[in-house]
Amino acid sequence: MSFMIEPDFPKNESERINDLLATNLLDSPKENDFDNITELASSIFGMPISAITLIDKERQWFKSCIGLPKEVTETPRAISFCGHTINNPNKVTVITDARLDERFQDNPLVANGTIVFYAGAPLMNKNNNALGTLCIIHSSPRTFNAKETKTLQILANQISKLIELRLINIQLDKSLQEKVVLLKEIHHRVKNNLQLVSSLLNLQKNKLNDDQFSKAIQTSQNRIKSIAIVHEKLYKSESLSLVDIESYLRDLVTEISTNLMDPERFQFNLEIQKIELTIDQILPLGLILNELISNSIKHCKKNNEVIVINISLKSENHYLLKYNDNGLGMENNTSLTEGIGLELIQSFVDQLEGKLDSFSNKNGLFYEIQFKPSLKFLQ
Question: What pTM was computed for the model?
Fold first, then answer.
C-alpha cells in the first residue's frame, strides 16, 4: 500500500513567504505579461495545461493558468506538485508518469486523471528563494529532453524578472508617494510662513500713523500673498509643479479686491484660457499682475467713476498677457519705464524671458507681455 507524500517546507520558509508577500502578487488580477508566458509555454511544449503558481503558506495559487476551469484559482499546498518543486530550487522537476511515482500515486489530482506528466521550473528571486513555479501538465505520460528542460527554465527566468520589475515599481511608487507627501507639506508650510510674514507686516502697519509707509507695507503684503496663493494651489493640486493659471488669477484678483478701500469702484474683467504654467512662470507672472493692479489703483481717477481693469491671457505659439485699465494713466502719454514698481515688472518679465510693451495715455495704462512655454514644461 502506498500513500501520497506531502511536500516538505523549505528551511527558509519564513523568509520565502515574506518575499512572496512583498510582491503583492497573491490574489492579484490577471496580467497580460504573465498570461502571455503561460500561453507560450503551452504552445511550445504542446501541453494542455500551463500555469504560473505561487506557493503560499497552505495553498498553491495560480497567477496565470491555461487549461483548467476558470473557477479553479488555487489548490491545497499539501497536494501540489509545485510544493515539491520549490524544494529543489536549482533544477527543473520532471515527472514523466506520476502514477509510477510514490510521492503522487495517491494524489487526488493523479487519481482523477488531471496530472500524469508534470514539469516545473522554480521562480527564483534575488534572495535565492523559490516563490513558485512555471509548470506544464499533461494527462498522459510524456518524455522531456534536455533542450525542453532548458527552454522551460528560460521561460521561468523571464517570469522571475517580471516579478523583480514589479517589486522595483512598487518601491518606486512608494518612494514617489513619500516625496509627493513631503513636497505638498513643503508647499503648505511655505504658504503658512508667508501668511505669517504678512500678518507681522500688518501688525507693524497698524502701529504706525504714516500713511505712505502703510501703503508701502500693503503693497509688500500683496506681493507676499500673490506668492502664497501659488503654494496653496500647488498644495491642493494633483500636480506639484503646474498651476491652472485661470484659477490662480481669479483667486489673486479676489485677494487684492478684499484689501481695497472701495472695492465697488473696481471692475475686473478676466479672459483667461485654460493654461497650466510651471511655478517658475506663475510666480513672476503673479507678481507682475500684482504690480500692474497696484499701479492702476495708485493712478485711478479721483471721482466716483468705476475703474475697469481688463486682463487676458491666451496661448498660441507663445503666451500673450494683455492688461489695461481706464484710469488716469501716466503723464506725457509716455512709455512706462520709471518707478520701483515698473522696475520690478521689467525684472519679472526678464525672469519669464519675455518681451514687454507698455504705454500710457489719458485712456489709461496698457501692457502686453509675450513669453514662451517653459522648457521644463515642454520636457
Answer: 0.55
